[in-house]
């Protein structure tokens, strides 16, 4: 019997008696790497032999699993026993022995890919360098990893040599492997002792780590990487036929986008085909990148909000003739929830929720393993590549030679914008094409993008002679949105049969306005005549509220009168169409997004009223400090926007002028400070995260901080803890436990970061537990007493 037929790489799956063979897993990893290589293609920024090193690292990455200690750890034989050593270290002995014919430099690169596919090289108790402390001599290595069956070791060296067309290796003993392991491990750790050997080596190393890690994960999950692009040469013709059937043609700016080569800035108003234009541009870039690299470029369509991502995934499914979304991935922190909602909404049988959840988790996991060539995501998911390491370097290699569409970049958040710009610079360096699509983008931001990318943007916009829509008529109101006068005006408009959207800057104002207006709206138009939406609902309740709003006020729905009171979550998250808007003043970008929820398709007989109310300006803290509009938005850009709006009070709004308005704000003294802040963040982020020097420090501690920066905090009501526990308890194995966690996540509430100090931390669930009033209609209300925290009684988060 071939001794390799009894060596496992993985434990047996539940219900199985036999684990996956080591040779099968190594072959599968090599196959996955080959798929990745064909996807990514030639990488200009790395040495010519990069993919050869990656392939050999994949072939050898788990060779160190032959020791008896590892086999016992995976239950071969049972019972499983703890081992405590890192198999990737022992794999180096096989690299050094079988690949002895290669140059020392090449063996070091291959060893680096092997050594870093699970653990960081340096930093912390989990690092490879830490374990090296107990392996000071070749004999220590032999003793620690023994016993090793030498017949099996020689069978593996012969198999590895045959698979990589190496010369037949000499017979090897356990002592030989110990010496080879110690020598190569010491060499690699010395070579990467303090910093990268040169300016480019750190980037090469992280990309190599990402290639090996990605291939290993794909092989371990027994999945694959799709190779047929859903955005193909047939798309333009399908689009033209569809428009012809509707009595329309492509807009000139869509034709121009299709012809553009290189990075793009597309400015076009809502309803003028920005999505189609971006896809036509992306197809051209995909063809060009494919021609120069031999790869199959990925398309990342990024949006800033989760709900808008979900809607865009559905939209792309229609555009790319993939209604089941089999080739379109959704990657964000709530991707599984998106798949679950779609499954439940489409369900016409008695499928159990846990079964739906299991399928949703599987689909989200496939996207997390980079399966699809088209993915809809947030910029922040892609920015995890900066964290590198075994957990995130795969994201970096997957983004090489890719095409990126940024659908709306928000300028006023300097910190996030600076990080996004830093990442776009890295993606361009790695062969990527960047497209920015916006109805309104200030010239100052366009200049920053060009400076970051190091080359001009192809700027595309509707012809100067083409009229932009005048969907809205502006009205300024000096009274606050919550004032008696404002409430009276909104009530009158409801009585007249209008659909009215009211957008407050904070949750407390939204709830107060809703309490006042809802009885009238419900008396006039039934239970759904008044709906409240903000970020402080349980996830499952918010999903239901969004569904009700879309069914009643969605762009393509029959007109219904009624009231929706919301916060800024409504700005770009839902495709809605109201008759009238009342909103608190905010920075111009936010206001323009809110305007877009009214008369969305310009189908009304006259411009729709958008009423902007002066906000209250006050410091957030009792002790003073900077002023904020309704304690949310910085006062200075909000006031600058208000001063511009004063000049247009009573006018129908020409949307072509919105960019000019923003230019005025961003060339002001405040705008100069904004630019300096963005450039500072971009430069600092590049220095700290994107030089990859040293490339293999443990950055896992930064992952939580990164999540907090972009996702905020999640909490749960004290009253929901038992239901949450019961939902989790439905999981009986690894697969259903993930599904149960997805179902349980319906009880979670998105919280502002400062809420961490307003509740207690539950170690069992890893959540903030808050004691507060809550209803499905109004969401999170006043916080109740908790002696262990300090806050304002009755404060609404």
TrEMBL record:
Q: Which CDD domains does this UniProt record tie to the protein?
A: Cas3''_I (cd09641)
Enumerate the Gene Ontology biological process terms: defense response to virus
Q: Name one Pfam family in it.
A: DEAD
Gene Ontology CC terms: cytosol
Protein name per UniProt = CRISPR-associated helicase/endonuclease Cas3
Q: Keyword Nucleus, does the record have it?
A: no
Transmembrane stretches in the record are none
Entry keyword set? Antiviral defense, ATP-binding, Helicase, Hydrolase, Metal-binding, Nuclease, Nucleotide-binding
Q: What Gene3D superfamilies does the record tag this protein with?
A: 1.10.3210.30, P-loop containing nucleotide triphosphate hydrolases
């Amino acid at each position: 019997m071939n001794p390799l037929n009894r060596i496992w790489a993985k434990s047996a799956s539940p219900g199985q008696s036999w684990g996956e063979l080591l040779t099968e897993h190594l072959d599968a990893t090599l196959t996955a790497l080959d798929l990745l290589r064909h996807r990514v293609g030639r990488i200009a920024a790395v040495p010519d032999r990069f993919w050869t090193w990656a392939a050999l690292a994949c072939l050898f990455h788990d060779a160190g699993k032959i020791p008896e200690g590892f086999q016992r750890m995976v239950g071969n034989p049972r019972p499983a026993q703890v081992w405590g050593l890192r198999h990737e270290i022992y794999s180096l002995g096989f690299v050094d022995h079988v690949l002895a014919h290669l140059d020392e430099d090449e063996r070091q690169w291959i060893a680096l890919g092997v050594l870093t596919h699970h653990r960081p090289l340096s930093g912390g108790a989990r690092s490879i360098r830490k374990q090296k402390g107990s392996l000071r001599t070749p004999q220590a290595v032999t003793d620690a990893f023994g016993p090793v069956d030498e017949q099996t070791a020689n069978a593996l060296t012969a198999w590895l040599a045959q698979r990589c067309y190496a010369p037949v290796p000499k017979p090897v003993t356990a002592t030989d492997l110990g010496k080879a392991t110690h020598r190569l491990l010491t060499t690699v750790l010395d070579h990467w002792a303090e910093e990268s050997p040169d300016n480019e080596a750190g980037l090469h190393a992280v990309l190599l780590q990402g290639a090996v890690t990605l291939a290993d994960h794909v092989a371990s999950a027994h999945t694959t990487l799709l190779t047929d692009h859903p955005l193909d040469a047939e798309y333009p013709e399908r689009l033209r036929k569809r428009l012809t059937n509707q009595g329309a043609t492509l807009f000139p700016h869509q034709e121009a986008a299709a012809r553009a080569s290189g990075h793009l800035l597309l400015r076009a108003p809502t309803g003028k085909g920005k999505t189609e234009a971006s896809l036509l541009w992306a197809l051209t870039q995909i063809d060009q990148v494919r021609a120069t690299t031999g790869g199959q470029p990925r398309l990342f369509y990024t949006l800033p909000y989760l709900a808008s991502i979900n809607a865009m995934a559905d939209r792309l499914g229609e555009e790319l003739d993939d209604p089941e979304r089999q080739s379109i991935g959704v990657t964000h922190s709530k991707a599984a929830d998106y798949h679950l909602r779609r499954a439940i909404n489409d369900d016409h049988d008695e499928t159990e929720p846990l079964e739906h959840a299991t399928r949703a988790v599987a689909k989200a996991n496939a996207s997390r393993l980079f399966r699809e060539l088209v993915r809809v995501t947030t910029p922040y998911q892609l920015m995890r590549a900066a964290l590198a390491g075994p957990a995130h370097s795969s994201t970096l290699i997957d983004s090489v030679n890719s095409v990126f569409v940024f659908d709306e970049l928000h300028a006023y958040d300097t910190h996030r914008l600076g990080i996004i710009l830093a990442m776009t610079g890295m993606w361009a360096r790695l062969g990527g094409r960047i497209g920015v699509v916006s109805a309104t983008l200030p010239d100052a931001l366009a200049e920053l993008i060009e400076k970051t990318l190091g080359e001009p943007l192809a700027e595309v916009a509707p012809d100067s002679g083409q009229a932009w829509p005048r969907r809205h008529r502006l009205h300024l109101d000096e009274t606050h949105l919550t004032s008696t006068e404002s409430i009276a005006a909104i009530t009158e408009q409801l009585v007249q049969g209008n659909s009215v959207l009211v957008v407050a800057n904070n949750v407390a104002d939204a709830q107060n306005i809703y309490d006042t207006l809802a009885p009238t709206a419900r008396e006039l138009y039934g239970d759904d005549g008044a709906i409240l939406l903000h970020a402080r609902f349980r996830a499952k309740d918010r999903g239901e509220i969004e569904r009700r709003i879309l069914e009643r006020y969605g762009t393509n729905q029959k007109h219904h009168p009624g009231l929706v009171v919301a916060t800024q979550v409504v700005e770009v998250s839902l495709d809605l169409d109201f008759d009238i808007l009342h909103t608190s003043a905010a920075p111009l970008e936010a206001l323009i997004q809110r305007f877009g929820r009214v008369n969305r398709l310009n189908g009304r007989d006259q411009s729709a009223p958008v009423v902007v109310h002066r906000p209250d300006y006050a410091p957030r803290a009792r002790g003073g400090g900077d002023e904020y509009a309704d304690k949310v938005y910085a006062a200075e850009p909000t006031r600058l926007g208000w001063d511009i709006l004063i000049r247009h009070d009573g006018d129908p709004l020409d949307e072509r002028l919105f960019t000019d308005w923003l230019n005025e704000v961003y060339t002001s003294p405040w705008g100069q400070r904004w630019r300096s802040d963005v450039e500072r963040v971009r430069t600092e982020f590049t220095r700290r995260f994107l030089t990859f020097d040293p490339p293999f420090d443990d950055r896992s501690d930064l992952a939580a901080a990164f999540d907090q920066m972009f996702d905020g905090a999640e909490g749960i009501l004290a009253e929901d803890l038992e239901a949450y526990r019961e939902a989790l308890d439905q999981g009986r194995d690894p697969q259903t436990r993930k599904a149960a966690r997805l179902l349980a996540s319906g009880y979670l509430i998105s919280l502002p970061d400062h809420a961490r100090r307003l509740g207690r931390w539950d170690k069992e669930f890893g959540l903030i537990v808050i004691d507060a009033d809550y209803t499905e209609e109004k969401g999170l209300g006043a916080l109740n007493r908790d002696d262990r925290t300090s806050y304002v009684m009755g404060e609404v988060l």
